[in-house]
Design brief:
The complex is a heterodimer of chains A (312) and B (271).
Chain A (H helix, E strand, L loop, with lengths): L1 H14 L7 H6 L5 H10 L9 E4 L3 E4 L5 H10 L13 H36 L4 H15 L2 H15 L15 H27 L2 H8 L4 H39 L4 H10 L4 H29 L1 H5 L1
Antiparallel strand pairs in A: 1-2
Chain B lengths: L2 H18 L1 H4 L31 H37 L1 H17 L2 H12 L3 H27 L3 H8 L4 H37 L11 H7 L3 H6 L2 H28 L1 H4 L2
Helix pairs in contact in B: 1-3, 1-11, 3-4, 3-6, 3-8, 3-11, 4-6, 5-6, 6-8, 7-8, 8-9, 8-11, 9-11
Chain lengths: 312, 271
């Protein structure tokens, strides 16, 4: 995991080198004076070499030593410093810390929505395999996977804000403002989970312990909800953990639709649209690290839940 | 083959035909505004109505299919070729090569949420069709590589591969003549799901303003332009039709992918 984190940080650091031309000119515009550009470059450390070595046609390979932007970024990172915004001069860490909880809240609410939809729907589909109810549930699930957030979101706004007037179309000021964004973001995940729960339930229903439970005279409800679901949810937990990253990335679109003041909107509006590359670097890094940590945590929980994996 | 596969195939063929013959199908020019007919409701003159600039929504949806198809085919073919080559290399040679590729490189690419990596690349590279395709290929090849690696690991132990080795066939010949044809089925499933993913990713990036810039009629851009509260109140059709087009196209390729997977995997067929 540490190797992957190191590579991700390295890639994100080097992303700045992909910017066509000089970031200083891009930010300050064509009308900026040479002095302004040099000042900007100095303030943000852009006058220092990008990496340990550099190559130019006239000088060939040049060894730059430890005084380079890559190590600067690492030094800052280890002190919790992601640099300062190219636009506002505000520390990127502060800007992210302000918005991060909103995104996590949205992702958690979306997960809750998806679990609440997926478990009952998946169980109904799984216990009625190949029957009409199963076909309907499976079709809804596939429809949910295919319906992108930027189609579902405006559609929900149309129905619940424009037609019914139940919720505000945008914003994140009031508690109820989270409902539509959470359904939008959780929609696709609930579809994926439904299919997963269905598969798991079908597989577990064929196991010996289910036959034993039925032979003991337990009701079908107890068999399904107490025995089958307990084991059937193990792979679902894995998917849930792995999908956290997808939710975080997907929240960028959802936050844009509902003007939800989270990390995604910060990345998009203050970072990408205003070409604040330092802020983009910080946001991409924080989302990626969260994703990696969530995956590792999932792996840990998975091992705890399934004794067979723990023992092996 | 299940019924959903045929429904998916029908929609996908329609989508391809519409994209190819867009010039003949679309009744209006998609970029020329007509401010006298702004936000016109669907009618016999404008089947899907008109948008904020009076452009015909039906014609724009039709040409949007061409953009989606172009991006989808480019991304799937480039990603598949790169992924297949790297996956075959990792699976066939194994050892340290496999450890580096499968144990490290694949994990690094999977450590980024796909859409986020594409957003980051486009943000730093700049918008445009070529850069969009490049960004989607960067996130897309790993899926093919993993599937191909898994297949190669399985197929390379078969007797006929061992026989070819014993007869002195070169590694390239064994991979492309003996292993690839027997590993192709799951790759077709992956390509079908990859097509759905590419169409969706293009529309997502265009929706975020990071894809194909206006006035090109990308479905994502069309939804972005029409999602304001006022427009949703007075002219919901502007958002509705491109939304239906994206959902149907993605659904179609998912149906095909699912149908093929089920058909190729007897275990799933019985579920």
């Amino acid at each position: 995991m540490l190797l992957v984190i190191w590579t991700v940080v390295t890639l994100v650091t080097l992303l700045m080198e992909l910017v066509p031309g000089d970031p200083a000119t891009t930010i300050l515009g064509e009308t900026a004076t040479i002095e302004q550009i040099e000042n900007f470059r100095k303030t943000h450390g852009l006058d220092r070499p990008a990496f340990f070595f550099s190559y130019s046609e006239d000088k060939g390979f040049v060894w730059n030593g430890a005084e380079n932007r890559y190590l600067d970024y690492w030094r800052g990172l280890l002190h919790g410093d992601l640099g300062v915004s190219f636009r506002t001069g505000q520390p990127v860490t502060e800007m992210i810390a302000e918005r991060y909880p909103k995104t996590i809240l949205l992702a958690a609410a979306a997960m809750l929505v998806s679990i609440s939809i997926a478990i009952p729907l998946g169980v109904v589909a799984g216990t009625n395999k190949n029957k009409f109810t199963d076909n309907v549930a499976s079709f809804i699930a596939l429809l949910g996977i295919s319906l992108p957030t930027f189609v579902l979101g405006p559609f929900l706004v149309y129905v619940f804000s424009v037609k019914l007037g139940w919720f505000a179309p945008t914003g994140s000021a009031y508690a109820e403002d989270i409902v539509l964004p959470a359904i939008t973001l959780g929609g696709a995940l609930s579809a994926i989970l439904t299919r997963m729960v269905r598969s798991s339930v079908i597989e577990e229903l064929g196991e010996d312990y289910v036959r034993t439970a039925r032979a003991k005279g337990l009701s079908e409800r107890v068999v399904v909800y107490k025995h089958v679901l307990k084991n059937g949810l193990i792979p679902v937990v894995t998917i849930l953990g792995l999908q956290l990253g997808v939710l975080l990335a997907g929240s960028i679109i959802t936050e844009k639709i509902f003007n939800w003041q989270g990390l995604g909107l910060l990345l998009l509006e203050d970072g990408i649209n205003k070409r604040d590359y330092r802020l983009v670097q910080g946001c991409v890094l924080v989302i990626s690290i969260t994703f990696i940590l969530a995956n590792s945590l999932t792996d840990f929980v998975y091992r705890r839940l399934d004794p067979r994996i723990r023992l092996s | 083959m299940n019924r959903l596969f045929y429904i998916g195939a029908f929609i996908a063929v329609t989508f391809v035909v519409v994209a190819i013959f867009a010039n003949w199908i679309a009744p209006y020019d998609v970029t020329v505004p007509d401010l006298l007919t702004r936000y016109a409701s669907p009618s016999s003159k404008h089947w899907f109505g008109t948008d904020a600039l009076g452009r015909d929504v039906f014609s724009r949806v039709v040409f949007g299919a061409r953009i989606s198809l172009e991006v989808g085919i480019s991304v799937v073919s480039v990603s598949a070729v790169i992924g297949i080559l790297i996956g075959a290399f990792a699976g066939y040679f194994g050892g340290i090569v496999d450890k580096i590729l499968n144990g490290y490189i694949f994990n690094v690419f999977l450590a980024f949420p796909g859409l986020l990596l594409a957003i980051a690349l486009v943000a730093f590279l700049g918008a445009g069709l070529g850069k969009l395709i490049l960004a989607l290929c960067v996130i897309g090849w790993v899926g093919y590589a993993r599937v191909m690696r898994g297949q190669v690991l399985k197929v390379r132990e078969y007797d006929y591969v061992q026989a070819a080795k014993a007869l002195g066939a070169s590694s390239t010949r064994i991979i492309f003549t003996h292993i690839l044809p027997n590993a192709i089925q799951p790759l077709i499933v992956q390509a079908s799901l990859g097509m759905a993913g590419a169409v969706l990713a293009e529309a997502s990036l265009s929706f975020l303003g990071l894809g194909i810039p206006p006035p090109a009629p990308s479905w994502g851009t069309m939804i972005e332009e029409s999602r304001g509260f006022d427009i949703l109140t007075s002219a919901p059709h502007v958002m509705f039709f491109p939304g239906i087009a994206i959902a149907l196209t993605v659904l179609a390729f998912n149906f095909i992918g699912d149908g093929l997977r089920e058909w190729l995997d007897p275990k799933q067929r019985s579920r």
